[in-house]
Amino acid sequence: MYVYxxxxxxxxxxxxxxxxxSVGICRRERxxxxxxDTISSQLSATPMESCFxxxxxxxxxxxxxxxxxxxxxxxxxxxxxxxxxxxxxxxxNTHCKSKDDDLGLRHLAYNDMITWHxxxxxxxxxxxxxxxxWWDNKTKVQIKGNFHIYEARYDIDACGKNCTRIxxxxxxxxxxxxxxxxxxxxxxxxxxxxxxxxKPYSSLKGIVL
Length: 209
Prior knowledge:
By secondary structure, the protein is an alpha+beta fold. It folds into three domains: 1-44, no CATH class; 46-74; 77-196, Immunoglobulin-like. It contains three helices and twelve strands; from the N terminus they run E-E-E-H-H-E-E-E-E-E-E-H-E-E-E. The chain has helices at residues 33-43, 47-65, 152-158; strands at residues 2-5, 10-12, 27-30, 77-84, 92-97, 102-108, 113-119, 127-136, 141-151, 162-167, 171-176, 182-188. It has a five-stranded mixed sheet with strand order 7-4-10-11-12, with no helix packed on it. Strands 6-5-8-9 form a four-stranded antiparallel sheet. A three-stranded antiparallel sheet has the order 2-1-3, with no helix packed on it. The radius of gyration is 31 Å and the shape is elongated. 14% of the residues are buried. Mean pLDDT is 76; it is low at 7-26, 64-73 and 201-209.
């Protein structure tokens, strides 16, 4: 027996019937008896069986795509805004990246901002992290740290499409849109311990002259 094999499907040729090929690139090939039996069993499937198989596949796809909140995050563009408000004259050096994207080294002056956008993946596993450092003019030390600036599994629900992070003198702050935009600490700056000899005196109380 001969069949036409196509890029997306094939149909069996009978002696007095020719299939109507609408798409694909097809070629005429001879097939074995075993292949004839396989094709016959596939063609004998009832419409109800085909519909049932389709529904199973559809349910599986929706289960994978659904998020905790019940929506589908694929295709939604999300933005992150990272603002330097540490203090006048302080430059915040940032290097943010994900497993797929590297935003490069940026130097943010006071009130400057870095922003980027992306689309979350099927499993809501998208994550960006940042290596940051800045010079503390008050204590004369270099502040260095790294933190997760965006985690889809938390932030899809917490800040939706627009997530703002503000670097201040004591910490990096974020906002919870589910609680009226409540400001909270996302990351507290690690500060090195100062030697006793370099600690500034708060007052002269107790000193006997």
